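Exam revision sheet. Question 4 asks you to relate a sequence to its structure. Input first:
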Amino acid sequence: MQNDGPPPRRVTSDKQMQVGPGWFGRLLAVIVGAIVLVGAAMLSVILLAVLFAVGTIVAGYLWWKIRALRRQAGAFGDDGRTVDVEVVHKDSPGDDSPPR
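Answer key, structure tokens:
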């Protein structure tokens, strides 16, 4: 099938289209940027709170388990009268402090 008629004409306009963003595009970019920035800040605050809560729960769990182990170790002969002492000699050769 052949089409012997004239080729279709293009519709043209005397006005040129603006290629760069106008004031509306810039305003829209500022608004969208502000919304994204606020959303990212809110997400980071929520994520920080969740991580803090999880860390607190894990630390409490570990503290509770260690507490139980300390109590269990106390049942094997520790009567609570243990004293940790460090002996310091009066004329220690490494003592550079002035005498009192």
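Marking note for examiners. Residues 26-74 form one domain.
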